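hey can u check if this looks right to u? its 316 residues, i copy pasted from the old doc so theres a chance i mangled smth
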Amino acid sequence: MAAVLQLAQVEFGDADLVVVPSDVTIEVRLHQENRIDTKQMPDNGKLVWRVTMPAQHASERDQDHALELIRLAIMILGQATALPFDEFMRLTDERLKRGLSNRFFSVRPIRELMAFVHPHALPFAVLSNSTRRELISSIAPIGSHELEWPSSLGPGYSRERAEEFLQNRYNISKQSIALTLPRLLRDDRCKKIIRELRKEGLLDWQILGIISSIVIQYQIQKMFPNRDVRALKKEMTDRIYRAERSADPDFDLNAFSDEIVAIQKKTLAVGALKTWGLEIHRQTPDFNAIKKLLDVRYMHSTDDLPHEDPFSMDNL
């Protein structure tokens, strides 16, 4: 399994997969079965896979196991990348055409090597009762600079595009909460939450986006009380791209709380990722890793435009 994952990493080393820099843990178990079983475990902090492998291999099934390991490696890469799925599959097909599968099938079980190098009449009974020798030095994986996570600007990024996105964000978010924002700023508790967000280093367009998301979700749920908010994508989108109206439900200021703001801070990065044409392929996103990708490669927490203070009553 380790060899297959290493081959996959090297084969994609000449492509920018825009990897979300999250940890991956693969828990391997042995079981008296004839097939490899893989199961993904839910975890927002990292990618976690549980792989159950046969305790004994029948020689005629080795090729089947190789295919399953290849699928696992591609599956893990597919969930680690932020590229659109079609683009990732195009890159995968290119590598299969240039011989990726042949290199995968060159990987052999270590039992074959051990069978080849074992001396005849090896005294296993004596060895099993002997004290294991301590390693002279610790074993550390050898890293390669070429395979390190890139910190260069991400594909598709340019300052010009960033400024265009930022201008749109300011315009859209301000008009979407045009009636609610003055109410928030007249409330000491709500205004304190906004000040704390600024102290944390959030940019004004990010804070406006957080407020807009909270207000719009609240109003849509009030307008469609019997429908799950996840089924209201069109209604949410329509509401985001229009100005707030007096006919919209009044926002309850108590719904603007530290707890709800903390949730929206996490999802802010996911929305920004989509703006750059990127995608999340995991059911349990690693929000901190997504933010790191955006901050390092797409200037998510540094790019801004000159603007009036949106949280000053004088500018409303």
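Residues 54 and 221 are 50 Å apart (CA to CA).
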